[in-house]
Design a protein that fits this description.
Elements lengths: L1 H26 L8 H4 L11 H20 L11 H36 L2 E4 L2 E4 L24 H36 L12
Antiparallel strand pairs: 1-2
Helix pairs in contact: 1-3, 1-5, 3-4, 4-5
Length: 201
Amino acid sequence: MGSRKCRSCLSSLLILLALWSVTVNILLYFPNGQISYASSNKLTNYVWYFEGICFSGVMMLIVAAVLLVLESDNNYKCCRSENCSKKYMTLLSMIFSALGIAFSGYSLVMSTLGLVQGPYCQTLNGWEYAFEGTAGRFLTDSSLWVQCLEPAHVVEWNIILFSILITLSGLQVIICLIRVVIQLSIILCGTYSIIIQPGII
């Protein structure tokens, strides 16, 4: 019972993290609250991968909802044997947790690449990725940020929001990994066998 309650809490936390991911990703489309840059496609290309909206957002909401349903007491009824039902629910839960790792892992990678690449902004040479060749060194050297003339404060905007997305998706990966470990321990060390014995069903 305690293990199931723990898994339910982790699934609920995934929902909260997913909602925050959607919110943060949407903010990336509106530097300083302005919509003109999105409408004219003057944003970093990594915001169009929808990592926070789709993958660590909507897809993780679906994964978390399915996990909560699978953890419900009413779902241990798929077979004539309770042992069989628990086994299949645990296996399904582990599969969806693995999907959660894939979705949040994608968001983690894309957000990291977006952070390292830097914003698409107007410089003295026109609109370009001013820090693309710096291998992320601009992140620790704020004196370089003045190269971006427009949107105002876009470097800080991107750094903060991409960093938050990295943190959120990283937490999702950790939570899903914890769930996989818990489910493996239930299968390998639990009170019911992963192997269906002859005559059980």
